[in-house]
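Could you help me review a protein record that somebody else here produced? This is what I was given.
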Amino acid sequence: MPKDVNRRNFIKTVATGSLGLGVMSSAHSFNILSQYPVQDKVRVAIMGVNGRGSQHIQAFAKVPNAEISYICDVDSRAVTNGLSLAEKSGVSKLPQGISDFRRALDHKNVDAISIALPDHWHTPMALMALKAGKHVYIEKPGSHNPAEGELLSKATSTYGKVVQMGNQRRSWPRVQEAIAELHGGVIGNAYYARAWYTNTRQSIGFGKEVPVPEWLDFELWQGPAPRAAFKDNLIHYNWHWFWNWGTGEIVNNGVHFLDLARWGLNVDYAKKAYSSGGRYHFKDDWQTPDTQTSSFDFEGKSILWEGRSCNKRGINDMGSGVSFHGENGTLELLDNSYKIYDNANKLVKSAEPTSNTVVDQRGAGFDMDIAHFTNFTNAITKGEQLISPYQEIVKSVMLCHLGNISYRTGRALELDNSNGRIKNDKEAMKLWSREYEKGWEPKM
């Protein structure tokens, strides 16, 4: 293993070839089942530090029983920036910077990995980590398709490791309070939830095929996804809008709010799903819908999702949120605050945010994130119950994937409400999984 690589010499080290296995085109095999002992500190390797991953660095730096061992990214600039951010965040020991995550999986000085990569990497990397004996913190959605969700859920049980999903809103005090109010009957039987997300995303234009930048290992970036040419409008965010790597807005942000809707209504799997929409606002390379509605029917209850990526006019003066409707009134949940109205539209209760941190469509309040990461490490070291266990949150992710499948097939889906699987529709089931680059197929 190479010596610690600091932010000043990382790029030089990568250039001379002492880091990284990016030239390899097939997956590295891990069959290690060792139970690495975890004492006072959970040693974490953070995978992907460009966007959300930078917040992982800041959070784990503040978690009392965590230590960041590795910062990993296929973008050498991101590793350099990540190391700098770790230092500024007050880590006691500077992590190692690496370009290939497999080096971290190979070593016993890593107890857990934290995944903040594009969607197509979530399940394959998590499976490799579990096989290597690591615990896993995985950002939403945790899967690129429903089959991956089923596979990772099974692996979670098989390998007996802690797997926490990054649905951090479940750790926010007012959210927990609001859900408790609902389950306590504050609006009687809550039978309908409306969830939404709005933004003003701009056009991504029409990309040109250009040489891969010297700072990027594009081969490893693609990993499990079938190979495609590098274009100048893909990295680092616009992959969200291409089916080969991303899953669109409903899975990108919808999962947060559909999860709250499902949690609040206390439902598991839907019996019917229908979705419609399109790429309306701009004409460009964007493949997923920028405008989408999805409805999900359960036994005696229903959920409606509305996503508008390019039109930010909110609902009930909220750019994103969830409202619950029942026999005796309505509860509106906006991030870390909520309001309750009776059926005469009279405000009964208003609970203000518990945090001064601004929370908007760009992401969570940082100070509230720490609780979610701390719950993950406490589950490892103290046996604390997980707030967002993967096997529970995967039910919410499945709703998002089903919305996309209905949208892509153009019809309603009849579902088995014992497991969420599509019934009597072979064409729709073709989208249940995906094709993989040879050698990268996720497996237990």
About this structure: The CA atoms of residues 210 and 231 lie 6 Å apart. DSSP finds 13 helices and 15 strands in the chain. The radius of gyration is 21 Å. Residues 390-409 form the longest helix (20 residues).
